[in-house]
């Protein structure tokens, strides 16, 4: 797959980036043709040897039909994790995120949003939810030419917060 200058591309676990340049880089005695990708969310620059583009999972921005499929993933009942161990769940979630598939990322996000209705998320779960939200919302907004806040609202509408009070461990004041 070939990417041109000025094109948007998605780098797994980092998000949408802009192909800013193509440079020749010497590593040892070999010269590599590299793409320079700047991640839109945080300005991180990633150098990717052109011959490794598929290997690292760089892909084009999703199209409108893929956006609709992501929302189908959200609408499907989330497959709640069978493993109660956060470390193991985190590892499984990261493996899905690293695939670069928007459907895998949506599945992780859906599970975390559903879990949030059952219990207060741990710090690690909240951090992971923030990450997958950033990854998907940015790409969906760009792919569908919409504001990020609108995309977030559409996703939030699919996962309404329950009225259960979050467990904080503190005694509640009756007044």
Describe it for me?
It is a single chain. Residues 167-175 have low confidence and may be disordered. This protein starts with 7 loop residues before the first strand and ends in a 17-residue tail after the last helix. It is globular, with a radius of gyration of 19 Å. The chain has helices at 53-56, 64-75, 86-98, 102-118, 123-144, 148-158, and strands spanning 8-11, 15-27, 30-39, 45-49, 59-60. The longest helix has 22 residues, at 123-144. With 175 residues, the protein is an alpha+beta fold. Helix 2 (64-75) packs parallel to helix 4 (102-118). It has 2 domains: 8-60, Thrombin, subunit H; 64-158, Methane Monooxygenase Hydroxylase, Chain G, domain 1 (Up-down Bundle). The protein has a 5-stranded antiparallel sheet. Helix content is 45%, strand content 19%.
Protein topology:
Blueprint: E1 8-11, E2 15-27, E3 30-39, E4 45-49, H1 53-56, E5 59-60, H2 64-75, H3 86-98, H4 102-118, H5 123-144, H6 148-158
Antiparallel strand pairs: 1-2, 1-5, 2-3, 3-4
Number of helices: 6
CATH topology grouping of the largest domain: Methane Monooxygenase Hydroxylase, Chain G, domain 1
Order of helices and strands: EEEEHEHHHHH
Instruction: State the share of residues found in helices, binned by percent.
Output: 40-55%
| Radius of gyration based on Cα positions | 19 Å
What's the number of extended β-strand segments?
Answer: 5
End-to-end separation? 63 Å
CATH class designation of the largest domain: Mainly Alpha
Q: Overall mean pLDDT score?
A: 90
Could you state the CATH homologous superfamily of the largest domain? CarD-like, C-terminal domain
Q: Outline the biggest β-sheet.
A: 5 strands, antiparallel
If strands are numbered along the chain, what order do they take across the biggest sheet? 4-3-2-1-5
């Amino acid at each position: 797959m070939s990417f041109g200058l000025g094109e948007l591309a998605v780098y797994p676990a980092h998000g949408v980036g802009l192909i800013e340049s193509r440079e020749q880089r010497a590593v040892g005695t070999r010269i590599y043709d590299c793409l320079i990708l700047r991640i839109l969310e945080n300005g991180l620059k990633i150098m990717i040897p052109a011959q490794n583009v598929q290997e690292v999972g760089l892909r084009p921005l999703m199209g409108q039909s893929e956006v609709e499929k992501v929302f189908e993933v959200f609408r499907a009942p989330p497959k709640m994790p069978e493993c109660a161990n956060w470390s193991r769940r985190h590892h499984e979630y990261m493996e899905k995120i690293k695939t670069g598939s928007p459907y895998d990322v949506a599945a992780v996000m859906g599970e975390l949003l559903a879990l949030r209705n059952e219990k207060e998320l741990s710090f690690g779960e909240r951090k992971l939810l923030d990450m997958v939200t950033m990854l998907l919302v940015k790409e969906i907004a760009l792919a569908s030419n919409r504001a990020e806040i609108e995309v977030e609202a559409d996703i939030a509408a699919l996962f309404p917060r329950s009225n259960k009070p979050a467990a904080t461990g503190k005694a509640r004041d009756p007044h």
